[in-house]
Amino acid sequence: MTIDKAYELHEDPLQYQYQLQAKQVQKVLDSHGRPATVVGGSVSQRSTSLNLQSHVTGGLQRLRDLHGTLKKALGVENIRLLNDSGELQLQVIRPFEPAVPLLDLLRLIPEVPPASAVLGLTEDGSPMLHTFSAQALPHILISGEEDAGKTILLRTIAASLVMTSNEAQIQLLAINPISGNHQRYHAQESALRPLNYLPHMLTDVAVRQTEIMELLFFLVREMNFRMEHDFAFPRIVVLIDQAATLMEHGGRTIVDSLQRLAQQGADAGIHLVLSTRRPDASVIYPHLSNLLQSRYIGRQNIMRTTENETHPTNIEATTLLGKGDFLTADSGCNVRFQAAYIGDSDLHLSLSRRYLRQPILLAQPQNKPLKMGQVSQMSHEQTQQFSFVDGLISAG
């Protein structure tokens, strides 16, 4: 599919980010008793400055108490609250500049094959793509230590599929489980949460045990239905973060469901993308590893044993730089590549501009929101009628 020129951001992306961050900050302030109001500000390449006005006693201290909440809402690591003679200002320090911005990379690719994710850029400057098919490398295993860029790659896979495929071709599901070591973790803090706004998402990112089990049961039923009726479209790509943790805490039912999907799902157009720090965990190796033949390895602090710890790929993985520096471990020649990156504001702006530019037939009745279990029964024409505007409204 040819990349639409609608992805070119004619609006000033910095100004758009300023407006988006101002709304995010005000939303946090409103939810905590409105200790201050955003009354203006400015934006530069390095930071966003928001002017705040407070009329409540102890407003400055209450704002300081919201420091962590504001960082999470904005998705940044560094913010500063300044008080200059009673004038309050919140400075949002811009995150790192990505080595390979996904939007820029997409503009360089004249045509992307169907059902293909744009992963990043290889050392020789060639785009790195992964095509989901039943015949070759239908599922993916992403591994690496913390800060290797596993979640970055998951987001990139999802975003690039959405930007190069319509809903009749690709649907998405995402799982980001709460583990025993993350009791304070909430769905709002998930790095995958922005995927909820993608029009191709069948439902919000699943984080709790009951949600995850229900989703996997749906996928198994969908797989059986498709195989019985010889359906394989739209393809469903399932993104699973912390896969080893999910399988260890989820029990035999979740493990069995994932094994069945890995064994037969691709023939029904269902593809798994698993991410984990521990590809050598007993729940993955050897039970699933032989079914996840396409592997992308990020930085490893130690040599993980999947087949042979002296294998050149395992040794080279300890020299990777992290933050999206990956190595393929497929059969044949290994390839090193830098995963592409897309921030929340770029994701929101590029998608909204693309979908809102499409003409809307006002005389055509609106479809009801898609429910799980109806995917295969929808016609190609019906699936194409879903709009990004509907997705934004339903997502919140």
Short synopsis of the structure:
This protein has 396 residues and is of the alpha/beta class.
Short descriptors:
alpha/beta, four-stranded antiparallel sheet, globular, 19% strand, Threonyl-tRNA Synthetase, Chain A, domain 2, Rossmann fold, disordered N terminus, 396 residues
What does this structure look like?
The protein is globular and about 70 Å long. The strands form 2 sheets. The chain has a 9-stranded mixed beta sheet with strand order 6-5-13-12-11-7-10-9-8. The chain has helices at 13-31, 59-65, 67-74, 102-108, 150-164, 209-229, 243-250, 252-264, 312-317, 344-356, 380-384, 388-395; strands spanning 37-43, 47-53, 79-84, 87-93, 116-122, 127-131, 140-143, 170-175, 235-240, 270-276, 294-297, 325-328, 336-339. β3 (79-84) and β4 (87-93) form a beta hairpin. Mean pLDDT is 79; it is low at 1-11, 182-187, 305-310 and 356-396. It is α/β, with parallel strands linked by helices. The chain has 2 domains: 13-93, 2-Layer Sandwich (Threonyl-tRNA Synthetase, Chain A, domain 2); 102-345, P-loop containing nucleotide triphosphate hydrolases (Rossmann fold), CATH 3.40.50. It has 12 helices and 13 strands. α1 crosses α3.
